[in-house]
Write a structure and sequence with these properties.
The protein is an alpha/beta fold. It has one domain: YqgF/RNase H-like domain (Nucleotidyltransferase, domain 5). It has five helices and five strands, in the order αβββαβαβαα. It is globular, with a radius of gyration of 14 Å.
């Protein structure tokens, strides 16, 4: 059963169920991960997973779930600056659809425009090449700040 929820319904789900959430900065080569647990929903950058195959990506997410027991996922949607969807946005949506249908996790997409730029500006680890986990943190934090008005 597909559980792709629009942001309003996803926020209502969070407020009703109080689940822990995984944030994903989707990329063709890497997945940046962040985590927020209820009831505080303080967002923490986790790590960067190097992508291989969908099956192995899902296995890696299941392994992550052992240490960080999330129940739903916010996937960053890399929209173009004019708000339109390009190839990467379509790929992120396809990935989220697979997460929902394969792993049965409720999924929401959230605009991630400029999250990588902000991650580089915020990061104390500027020498680190991959900041995808910081971008995932910003995506998840942005969603939670917008809907939970912390």
């Amino acid at each position: 059963m597909t559980q792709i929820l629009n942001p309003d319904k996803f926020a209502a789900f969070i407020q009703d169920q109080a689940p822990s959430i995984l944030g994903i900065d989707y990329g063709s080569k890497n997945l940046g991960l962040a985590y927020a647990s209820s009831p505080t929903y303080v967002t923490t950058p986790l790590n960067v997973l190097k992508r291989t195959t969908l099956k192995k990506d899902f296995q890696a997410l299941e392994e992550t779930r052992k240490d960080f027991p999330f129940h739903c996922v916010v996937v960053g949607l890399p929209l173009n600056m004019d708000g339109s969807e390009g190839a990467m946005a379509q790929a992120a949506k396809q990935f989220g659809f697979y997460l929902s249908t394969t792993c049965h996790w409720p999924v929401c997409f959230w605009d991630e425009r400029l999250s990588s730029v902000e991650a580089a500006e915020r990061s104390f680890q500027r020498k680190q090449k991959r900041l995808d986990h910081v971008a995932a943190h910003i995506i998840l934090e942005s969603f939670l700040n917008f809907y939970l008005k912390r």
